[in-house]
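Sample entry (344 residues):
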Amino acid sequence: MIGMGDIVPSGWQRVIERVLEQPIEIDFLEIGNPQSEKIKKKIELTFKESSPDEIKTTFPIRTEELAEYKPVSEKVSSPKQISHYLLGSKIIYNVNKIAWYADKVFQECCNSLGIEKPPEELLKLFRVTFSHVVRKHMLFHYKVERGSRLLPEDRYWEYRVKIYERSEAQTKGVLEEALADAYAVTYVEDEIRALQPPVSIPISKESLVAGFRKMIRAAFINDARPPGYRAAKNFLLEFDNLKDANTLESIQNLLIYSAIMKGVTNIDGIFRGLSWLYRELTFLETTDLERWPLPPAPPYPTKNFLLFVENFRSDATLFLLLLLPPTEEPFIDKEFYPKRLPVK
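Predicted structure, serialized as C-alpha cells:
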C-alpha cells in the first residue's frame, strides 16, 4: 500500500516497468555471461561503423497495434455537448506486444550485423528506446487533437469519423499516421542520446547512440510498413527542421528550404505534411498519399498555420491549457501468444 510521502510512479514509468518485466523470447546472453566481453569489440565497431543499409529488419504491423490513443472526443457523441477541458485523453500501451516486437527488431538488426546473441542489458535498453518511439507516435495524435483547437472551428470529432477512421484508411493509409511515425523517429533522438551504456557492456556512448538510431530508423522508416506508415520517410525533413528551429540561422534556413520545395517563400513549403494535415482538419478533405502533391495553396492566414505548427514543436503552457497531456497506462493483451523467435 502506498503511504504518505511515497513517490507514486507516473503512468509512463509503470508502462516501462511492465515492458521490461515481459519474458525475453529470443536467444540472448545473460548478464555475467563471459561471451559478452568477447563480442564487446564487435558491438562497438558494428554499431558505430555500419551503414544504415546494412541493418535489416521487418516491422510490418501498424504502430496502433502496440498502443492506442483514446481522444477526448470519443467520450461524447458531439464535442459541443460538454467542455473539452473537463475530460482527458488517454494512451493505453500493449506492453507484451511492445516487448515482443522490440526484441524481434533488435534480434534481426543484430543478426544483420553478425551478432547472433545480443547481451541482455542492451536488449533491455532497446526495449526502452522502442517504447519511447511508440510513445512519441501516440503523443503526436494528442497534439493533433490539441492543435485542432487552434483552428477557427474545431472539427476534430468530424475529422476522426470522416478522415482518420474512414473505411478506406486500412488500405489507402492515413496522413496522420505517416506524420506520427516521422515525428516519433525524429523526436526520440533526445531519448536515445540520453542513454548510458550498460556496465556489463562498456561500449562507447557514441557507438550505442549510433547503433540504436540506425535500428529505429530501419524498423519504422521501411517500405514494408502498412499503407500510410510507409510514407513517413517523406516527412522526416520537415520534422528535422522543426526540431532544430531554435536559432535565427535555422529559421532563415527554413525560408530557403521552403522556397526550394515550393518555389515561393511561404513557410508551408517545408512543412508540406503539416500543411496538408491542417487542410484535412479544416475542410475534411482526404489527402492522396500516393500523388505527393505540393502543399495546398493556403486559404488561411499564415499566422494561423504557424501557431498550428508550433503546437507540434513545443509543449508551452498555453498549449497545455487547450488540452492537458493524456494519462498513460499499461495493458497486457491476453490474446497475444508470442512464439520464441529463432536465431537466423
